[in-house]
Amino acid sequence: MNRMRIGDLTERAGVTQRTVRYYESIGLLPSGEREGNGHHYYTEETVARLRKIDQLKKLGLSLEEIRDVIELYFTDTSGVLPKRKILGILRQHLDNTDQRLEALGQFRSDLQSHIERFERWLEANDSD
Length: 128
What we know:
Layout: E1 4-5, H1 6-13, H2 17-25, E2 33-34, E3 40-42, H3 44-58, H4 63-75, H5 80-125
Antiparallel strand pairs: 1-3, 2-3
């Protein structure tokens, strides 16, 4: 199996060593194999995981959501289970976005009403 040290891993995956260590600490990546000399070694699967994490982040998934689905990509070779899970997450994101847009629209409408009310009051009471 082709193994690499963290510098090679980060170069190939386009991430920093800090990112790798953080992902290991929160369970997104398994820790690299440690050898007697204290160095950690990583495999091609780690590169694939880092690339998949990046793709999922670009879809708008949080790291917590990614942690819930990442393993499915490496255990379900058909890809059906992870895609179903992500579809559910994306639908929830869309629902949340629609709710925020509705609330923001209401806020805008309220602001417009307040502005108009203040303008009418000032026009009626402005002595300049």
